[in-house]
Amino acid sequence: MPSELHRAAGVGFAVVDVETTGLSARWDRIAEIAVIHTDSAGRVTDEWTTLINPDGPVGATRIHQITAADVRRAPRFADVVGELTTRLVGRALVAHNARFDLAFLRKEYSRAGWDMPTVPHLCTLDASWAYLPDLSRRRLPDCCWASGVQLNDAHSALGDARATAGLLGYYLDSRRPPQHQHLQLPLHASKVSWPPVPHTPVTVALRDPGRAQPEPAAPGRLATLLDALPLSSVLEEGAPTVAAAYVELLAEALEDGVLTDAEAASLAELATTYALTRQQVDTAHRGLLLALAHKAVEDGKITRVERGDLLATAAVLGFPDAVIKAVLDEANTALTAQRSQDCRPLPEAWRHGEPLRIDQRVAFTGGDDIERARLEGRAQAAGLRVTGSVSRQTAVLVTDGVDGQTAKAKAAREIGTRTVTLKIFGEMVAFVQPATSSTTEAAVSPRRSGPVRHRRAAAHAPVDLSSVDPSEIRTWARAQGQPVGERGRLSIDLIAAYRTAHPTPDLEN
User: 259-268, long-range: CB within 8 Å, 24+ apart, which pairs?
Assistant: First the structure.
């Protein structure tokens, strides 16, 4: 540890967490605050917390568990600003997603008639890229889990502040080692001049541990997709790196499946908190949608619920239905292309006739439940679409051959659908072949409800990538109404469509 830090001993850090009535520091208020003192090495020395009367609705009780009754006799922020200032003076501030918490603090200071100075701070979310580089998500629970820090009473100011203090201690552990600029923060903070806010005694208000807690928010329909969604994939789809913390907070807001009108209206204000331009916000939203769509199609199917959720999310973020439909088609095309590259060639002794191809539909009837479930899982993993009925788009019906009078078996005989045994299908699914233009169109077309925005290149037409400038393709695609991020994958179909619209002599001959 640098020797000059010894002169700042006993000062250290103030770890702060706030629970708020909403996302906008401009319109919403702090409903609970906690401050934890640590020394310069991140060791906890003191803690303080209180509920705050926000002079209005408390916001999402289902998230932070604070009710109107809890804050009715709580002090207002102006009542605690003196006590709070004594706990912050001379210390570097620490918070998880610090821009959010500090924006609320500055606004509350302003409402109370004081200017909060700019104080050196450490954001444990931003710092996680250095100390926990391999995380896929960077919420407080994710960082705590990766570092072995306990998180109790999540979404309470004190519980989250204790966990954030634990992260700070993990980051500053000399065995890592800590980053030099983080070790110097207390020294810089000790030189910051604070306004002379009078220190008046205040009676804090705490949550009632004996009160029946409100029912916590149930996981939303988007929660599964978002929980497994790597933040890096959103960045790969074009979201700017400077928007990473904003995207993480937006994803948290979406996880309960409800983005209220107030939350949606606060997004622009929230973007201002993170100093993002309108273009950066639009690109971040588009990147999140693209990443969600790619995640949704990974299992080879889009359920009606997933599709509805993505459409609702697109609407909240300001995108028309046509955009998310195009995004899903692009995601499906990219997945199909990737799976096609991984296909194994047919063995020389192949004896099962026409092979199955990615995106083809298969149906099952009869058979042992466990064996059937295993084969259905293999089919989906190989890029086939398992359906519950037989139609003219069904490539094969898989049957145990015991009962030929099932509805599926009868339908297969009537329309001439190929029927294979469980054993033969087990051999066929190991050698699923790349999709052709006909199988891809058959898979995509039922989901289209708007006009096709570009022509699909013929399956036999090669796509020359050697002279394609990705930035030119993106510019052209946006002009056609296609949702394309600044970075990330360009689908084969999109490149082919660009080539169709911009033919070259080499391709024409």
Answer: 259/313, 259/316, 260/60, 262/22, 263/22, 263/23, 264/316, 265/24, 266/22, 266/23, 266/24, 266/27, 266/28, 267/23, 267/317
* Residue among 42, 440, 25, 489 nearest 272 (CA): 25
Dist CA 350 CA 102 (whole Å) = 66
Average pLDDT over residues 322-338: 75
pLDDT tier at 299, thresholds 50, 70, 90: low
Q: Which two tokens stand for residue 302?
A: 């889009």
φ, ψ dihedrals at 311, nearest 5°: -65, -40
| Helix or strand run (H / E) with residue 242 | none
- Alpha carbon distance 452, 352 (integer Å): 36
Find the distance separating the first CA and the last CA of the chain, reported in whole Å.
70
Lowest mean pLDDT among 154-158, 321-325, 460-464: 460-464
HSE-up (13 A, CA, CB side) for residue 228: 9
Residue 200 exposure: Cα atoms within 13 Å on the Cβ side:
9
Res 171: pLDDT = 96
pLDDT at 238: 83
- CA 296 from chain centre, in angstroms, equals 12
Look-up: residue for tokens 């103030």? Answer: 14
